[in-house]
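re: that chain from earlier
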Amino acid sequence: MEPSELVTGQIYFGLGYEDDAFTRPIITSYEYLGTAVESPLNTLDGAEYLFRFLGGEDRLQLKEHQVRHLILDVVELTQDLKRWAEAKVAPQPREGDGIGS
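^ sequence. v structure.
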């Protein structure tokens, strides 16, 4: 997902797997809240994008490169799950998956 395509208030997804064999997908839903304008890191390291985990008030703050690798819209989620279902084993994670990448 390109950060420039994010729409405030829209729902986005994260897709992970419970096991190392990628056989048990875990879908996380997020509401996009916008960018963290007041963060001093925005000027040093690019914008930060804020998400709220659905079902609670916990927040997730990501950099541009993390949004590209961790956040999916419904079309991307559907495509990834379809590939997983067709293969009976999930596709390898996208390059750079992980909060610390």
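The chain has one domain: 3-87.
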